[in-house]
Design brief:
By secondary structure, the protein is α+β, with helices and mostly antiparallel strands. It contains 9 helices and 21 strands. Strand 12 (236-247) and strand 13 (252-257) form a beta hairpin. Residues 325-339 have low confidence and may be disordered.
Length: 378
Amino acid sequence: MLDIHLKKNYGNFTVETAFTSEGHGVTALFGHSGSGKTSIINMIAGLVQPDQGRIVIDDRCVFDRAKGINLKPEKRRFGYVFQDGRLFPHLSIRSNLVYGMRRVKPGDRYIQFDQVVDLLGIEPLLERHPATLSGGEKQRVAIGRSLLTSPELLLMDEPLASLDVARKKEVLPFIGRLSSELSVPILYVSHSMDEIFNLADTLVFLSQGKTMAVDSLETVTARPDFQQIAGPMESGVVLSTLVQGHDSERGLTRMEFPGGVLKVPTMGAAVGQKVRIRIHSRDVAVSLKRPSQTSFQNIFPTTVTEVVKARNGDDLVDVSINVGSTADLPTGSLVRPPGCSSIIISTITRNALRELDLKPGMQIFAMIKAVSICSGNF
């Protein structure tokens, strides 16, 4: 269990956060630059001393201002992966990896060298030096070095920020396997929705130094204020689904979620497998009447719950809609009991809002293109 309460004044800017999360999986700190993410993770690491607060992991207190507790960074047993890797250039990759491991008593080591090398796929790199590695390879080695300290908590401060798209795709799957295969809780800092979508179990939403929300990824991404921060290109929701079945004749996979059944292009996932999907709000259209003769594969009866106008001063409007009809679900639903629902969001123009005259409580239809739905396995 992580129990974090922190406050730090930086002149005219104050960072203040309070959150708890289960002591497993990935807890992500999300917000734009300047929201306080790195300040928070540096306070947790012991690199910056908070003005007030406490830091507790699994009932072990490493900082409590009121009680005068402030363990040094090396005594906290936290691993830290920075943006740039920070490998020792004069040492081989093998020597870089065992550097931190040698500082841990053998009896305190629960992660083994061969285990990390295999998990991160870095055996071919062991006798090389950092200067000969790609950016993605350096980050995998940096992650491995931190893991071999057998940390009680792994801190990752935008570890993919300096990598290009290809290198990010290379490293991201390895990070996703860490908490499950090594049982290492991770505190992950990022302003990238793609990274959060693929990794986060719990999301800490930050804005201007303050904690706006702490909850599951699915719950937080449905908040209107999260959409405001995410911006028009990243706005959307994340949903938990189960694969209900495949229709090879039509080239579709059916994904059951709390609001019904989504159709997506055929995916290589087993029936009953949990899959996380992301629906961008710009890919959701709305209609006052059920459309016919359309290419949209997903059409749902919905209810307008909220209309948020003039996001960031532009001409776009976010419409939150509740997808909750249970009539189309088979007996023995995999995901939801009767009466459950999901919130999705549609971004439309102010002119469309005016023409449709959308208001909370209205019954409308939501349409989602099957090819626009992004997926990522749990």
